[in-house]
Amino acid sequence: MEVFNDFSIKEIVTCFMVLFAVIDIIGSVPIVVSLQQKFGQIEAGRASITAGVIMIIFLFVGNKILKLIGVDVNSFAIAGAFVIFIIALEMILGIEINKTTEAKAASIVPIAFPLIAGAGTLTTTLSLRAEFHDINIILGIVLNTIFVYLVLKSAKWLERKMGEATLSILQKVFGIILLAISIKLFTANFAQLVQNYINF
């Protein structure tokens, strides 16, 4: 099939890593454990699949929404770069810029949305379209969905084994990676925008 001509291991790994850093499911383990204690058993499969479906749907529908309001992918990618930049700062500095609302139910809300497929994740998913092929982004989403499922299933065990200090270090490391990705995303798409206007 023609779609598999664009298959690239490198792109899949990059998409996986970008989304993995934005979702930050490892850093969210204490939140997941807290929700388990508050609401009982979390349906890991349902939450993971719902989050994955939301991301894939937004990957395709999101672009049509942009066209409807007259915004190109490069401009949206730059906006996405700013969102990723802010998320990275939160992770590195341990501050809270985006205030989250208190959870009222488990599994779909707030696990699938907005904990996994939140505003930052959806913006990032669509921003990736400016640089990568759809098939590789989808596979990156699927791999993240599987990983999220495994983490949700073993959240309590992970928290006991890793400890608060290790989780904090991991959060900062992925924050720095995310910061570098946001800068790359901004510069690449800004250059493309400038080129488009010059050619125009």
UniProtKB/TrEMBL annotation:
<feature type="transmembrane region" description="Helical">
    <location>
        <begin position="135"/>
        <end position="152"/>
    </location>
</feature>
<feature type="transmembrane region" description="Helical">
    <location>
        <begin position="47"/>
        <end position="69"/>
    </location>
</feature>
<dbReference type="Pfam" id="PF01914">
    <property type="entry name" value="MarC"/>
</dbReference>
<dbReference type="InterPro" id="IPR002771">
    <property type="entry name" value="Multi_antbiot-R_MarC"/>
</dbReference>
<feature type="transmembrane region" description="Helical">
    <location>
        <begin position="173"/>
        <end position="194"/>
    </location>
</feature>
<dbReference type="GO" id="GO:0005886">
    <property type="term" value="C:plasma membrane"/>
</dbReference>
<keyword id="KW-1133">Transmembrane helix</keyword>
<feature type="transmembrane region" description="Helical">
    <location>
        <begin position="105"/>
        <end position="123"/>
    </location>
</feature>
<feature type="transmembrane region" description="Helical">
    <location>
        <begin position="75"/>
        <end position="93"/>
    </location>
</feature>
<keyword id="KW-1003">Cell membrane</keyword>
<comment type="similarity">
    <text>Belongs to the UPF0056 (MarC) family.</text>
</comment>
<feature type="transmembrane region" description="Helical">
    <location>
        <begin position="12"/>
        <end position="35"/>
    </location>
</feature>
<keyword id="KW-0812">Transmembrane</keyword>
<protein>
    <recommendedName>
        <fullName>UPF0056 membrane protein</fullName>
    </recommendedName>
</protein>
<keyword id="KW-0472">Membrane</keyword>
